[in-house]
């Protein structure tokens, strides 16, 4: 077992099983993704493309309270003045964005919200423990849920995605409900999502590599045309629909924290 520690990630690799575990390691920030995390994720996925000792990957978050709460609100992302050019720091954080066609299993405990769906949306499947909850805060704070909704719409029924996106912070989807609607493929007791994901990854890593990677590529090919077309609309919708940053910050300070879980 080898351990590689980056500024915001931990990466362990087991050459005997062929499984790597990538851990978002900012528990004090609920594993929110800052610009350093975004760059490190892109680097790690790209590196796995050339590392034949890694044949399957588990992605998770440290600390128990959250898988990830999306983009760190402290991240400063300069934007062009033109509404036709929107710089989204999260568009390249997923394995498929890096051209990685090795299977990735996401293991979720605690909160997964907002920009976390960029990562969950590019995993082959999601395992969650019973503590997991899912929600999308964008509309609550005057932001368009575009990329997140596109990714979720390829995993869940339309009405469920619409409800999750439009209800904002007023409602959280429980792990049980996420399992019922297909976002999650397996529920585990608290703390058991990572071991369950590693077991699945170990099985996939034990199979002939080209067959596994070809199957991953085929699965994504089935969704690629609609996903690409939908994501192409996302920057313009964000540009047109988002409140100015100052107005978002004002709402962030005034919205009540109460929510219901379903």
Percentage of residues in strands: 15-25%
- How are the strands of the largest sheet arranged? 1-2-3-4-6-8-11
- Tell me the major beta sheet: 7 strands, mixed
Distance between the termini: 40 Å
What structural class do helix, strand and pairing data support? alpha/beta
Compute the number of structural domains. Answer: 1
Q: H/E order of the elements?
A: EEEHEEEEHEEHHEHEHHHE
Whole-number mean pLDDT: 92
User: What would CATH call the class?
Assistant: Alpha Beta
What is the name of the CATH superfamily?
A: 2-enoyl-CoA Hydratase, Chain A, domain 1
Summarize the amount of helix as a percent range.
25-40%
CATH topology grouping: 2-enoyl-CoA Hydratase, Chain A, domain 1
**Uncertain stretches of 5 or more adjacent residues:** none
| Backbone shape | globular
Number of helices: 8
> What's the β-strand tally?
12
Structure notes:
The chain is an alpha/beta fold and 262 residues long. The protein has one domain: 2-enoyl-CoA Hydratase, Chain A, domain 1. The chain contains 8 helices and 12 strands. The strands form 2 sheets. It has a 7-stranded mixed beta sheet with strand order 1-2-3-4-6-8-11, with helices on both faces. Strands 5-7-9-10-12 form a 5-stranded mixed beta sheet. β3, α1 and β4 form a beta-alpha-beta unit. It is globular, with a radius of gyration of 18 Å. The model has no long low-confidence stretch (mean pLDDT 92).
């Amino acid at each position: 077992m080898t351990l590689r520690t980056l500024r915001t990630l931990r990466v362990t690799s087991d050459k005997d099983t062929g499984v790597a575990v990538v851990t978002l390691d900012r528990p004090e920030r609920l594993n929110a993704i800052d610009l350093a995390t975004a760059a490190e994720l892109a680097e790690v996925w790209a590196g796995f493309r050339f590392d034949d000792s890694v044949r399957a990957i588990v992605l998770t978050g440290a600390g128990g309270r959250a898988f990830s709460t999306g983009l760190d609100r402290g991240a400063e992302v300069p934007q062009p003045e033109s509404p036709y050019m929107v710089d989204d720091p999260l568009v390249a954080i997923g394995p498929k964005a890096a051209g990685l066609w090795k299977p990735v299993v996401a293991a979720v405990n605690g909160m997964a919200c907002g920009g976390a769906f960029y990562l969950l949306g590019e995993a082959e499947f999601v395992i969650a423990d019973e503590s997991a909850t899912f929600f999308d805060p964008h509309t609550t704070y005057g932001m368009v849920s575009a990329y997140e909704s596109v990714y979720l719409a390829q995993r869940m029924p339309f009405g469920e995605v619409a409800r999750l996106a439009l209800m904002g912070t007023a409602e959280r989807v429980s792990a049980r409900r996420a399992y019922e609607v297909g976002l999650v493929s397996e529920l585990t007791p608290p703390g058991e999502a990572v071991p369950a994901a590693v077991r699945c990854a170990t099985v996939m890593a034990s199979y002939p590599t080209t067959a596994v990677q070809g199957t991953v590529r085929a699965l994504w090919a089935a969704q690629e045309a609609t996903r690409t077309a939908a994501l192409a609309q996302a920057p313009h919708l964000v540009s047109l629909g988002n409140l100015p940053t100052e107005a978002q910050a004002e709402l962030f300070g005034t919205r009540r924290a109460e929510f219901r879980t379903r």
